[in-house]
Amino acid sequence: GQMGNTVPDLDDAQALKRFFNAVQALNRDAQLLAYHDRSDGGVFAAACEMAFAAHCGLTLDVDALCAGAEAEAQLAALFNEELGALLQVRAEDREAVLARLRAEDLQAQAIGSPNDSDEIRLMRGATPLLAQTRIELQRVWSETTWRMQALRDNPECAQQEYDRILDANDPGLHAHLTFDPSASPPLKKGVAAQPPGELPKAAKSPLPPFSKGGNVRPRIAILREQGVNGQVEMAAAFDRAGFDATDVHMSDIISGRATLADYKGAVACGGFSYGDVLGAGEGWAKSILLNARARDEFGAFFGRGDVFALGVCNGCQMMSNLHQIIPGTAHWPKFLKNRSEQFEARFVMVEVTENPSLFFAGMAGSRMAVATAHGEGRAAFADAEAQAKALVALRFVDNRGAPTETYPANPNGSPAGITGLTTADGRFTILMPHPERVFRSVQQSWHPQGWVEDSPWMRMFRNARAWVG
User: Is 198 a catalytic residue?
Assistant: First the structure.
């Protein structure tokens, strides 16, 4: 099956250096819209992959690549894998970009543009050499992955992901907010707003205007167990909201070096507790339930009326298994292996439901994307009655905003898209997704134009601070 005898190589290291610097300069000056190297299939494969990712059509002109060349040379130009890249730039920037590249002694030419027909077209002048729908070619391109996935994973999930390609009108990720992310959340009833006061030297973020004690920062325990790796992001989010975030390892609780009595809040973090083996979150819960000191500590904490707790990912699994000592959680589910039978790390759409959680105050009805990363996130309720009585705080939705059980918009197969729950008083909340990984806009692989430093997910953490007062 060999095609050709010449291996792609690097003839001029300085040319590669000039190319890299030129691309970086174009990106810095906002003249670069998209980029794809041609090392895996050539420029035609690169162009198709860019069209697949963007869900748009594309027209390429063979003459622009190799004017007057014979068929063999045309194939070489389309499919050779020598060092090079395909850049997308605005039409009005084309000449300036070409001039900039040629000034660096780099060969460059305009070879095509997107089209509105959702077709991949290969032209030679006015003569079409190829005209095929983007969906047809994308399904061919994805078929090998689909067949391997169907053998390795849940075949139904593999089919659902493959069939997404057929939806030519998929609107993609979006954000629909029912609140102003830049506005301060409402104060806890009976708390008067005070000036934020002077920022402590150790603090890296301004104190909120709703703190009642000037520069007082309520203490929150950032709980972790062996293997947990999300504690730094979680601490950063709560710090930015105005808390004094403290690293508390389970060994600190079990040994008596730390007590939850010193904290207004506690958050059980995600990551890979106990190496993320089966039932890792349940194992974490048993280290509490089966240890007298730890059980007493957590039981006393959850029994207080002036505290809150959040569980994310492994922490969500852990808290769901502590329902016997957390008031109001009798209907919480367990979280079992994903329906896809794989660890799922994705950026997916969720909706905040109408619910009493202090974390989601004022956010009901909002839809936005969030990071997920878990192998056991499928909510499994004891029965239909338990599911009906559970207070849902967050659910997976598709790109049109409808609750979904379809993979991969719902990455774990939870019923009705349920991926977050709370208690009637709103003080205890568990979530499978990771809002702490996207509380800054720059952490998101996509967000609407105009979002500032803090993403809308930051509202969750500020809500907690407002609740404390």
Answer: no
